[in-house]
Amino acid sequence: MAPYSLHPGRAGGESRPPAGDREPARLAGKEEHMRSPVIRSLSVLFIGWFVTLATDTGPAWPQTELDPQSLVGEWVGRWTEKHVAKSHGSYYLWIEKVEGNKVYGRGEIAGRRSTEFKLVGTLDSNRLTFGKNTITELLIAGDQMRGSSQGRTPLDITLSRKK
User: Fold this and answer.
1) Model pLDDT, residue 144
2) pLDDT for res 18
3) Measuring CA to CA, which residue among 87, 57, 78 is closest to residue 148?
4) Phi and psi based region of residue 142 (left: phi greater than 0; alpha: psi -120 to 50; beta: remaining)
5) Residue 37 in 3-state DSSP?
6) Using an 8 Å Cβ cutoff, are 137 and 131 in contact?
């Protein structure tokens, strides 16, 4: 193959590459042209995602100042097994006292079988966490608690203060 130059009058002979060499260059330009809108779209999505994260004001569940003593009392609700939605039952919490960020009480999970447990939990803002082998985390908003337990059988939990 004879050497070529893209500039007429320079050493090397032809002013254009042979036809066989032009095809890949033409396709490469087309690929670049097609890739450009994709890159722009991904850039816009990334920037939008970043702006959303940067301006996030927190979770959708409202976080109001929580009086820890307002937790004392009976809470009733439901549990649903995360992996088997048909499996569900009643969930009860009786919070007996709150001292500092420690919450004391007892609970019961009722379904085919009932399980009772003692509760010593930690309150961090509006988040109540308790358990050793099965960790339960509940977010508190007014007279509602919502969260989950992670353990051998993960559960989604919703509770309301019993009046």
Assistant:
1) 96
2) 54
3) 78
4) left
5) helix
6) no
Interatomic CA distance for residues 156 and 117, integer angstroms = 18
Write the single-letter amino acid at 46: F
93 burial level (CB within 10 Å; 0-12, 13-18, 19+): buried
Q: Please name each of the domains of the chain with its CATH number.
A: 1-56 (no CATH), 68-161 (2.40.128.20)
Partner residues linked to 156 by β-bridges: 80, 148
Summarised one tens digit per residue, pLDDT across range 109-153 is 999 889 999 999 999 999 999 999 899 999 999 999 999 999 888
Helix, strand, or coil (residue 31): helix
Q: Across the strands, what pairs with 81?
A: 155
Structure tokens at 69: 């003593």
Quote the pTM value. 0.61
- Give every residue of the chain whose pLDDT is below 50, as ranges: 4-5, 13-14, 55-59
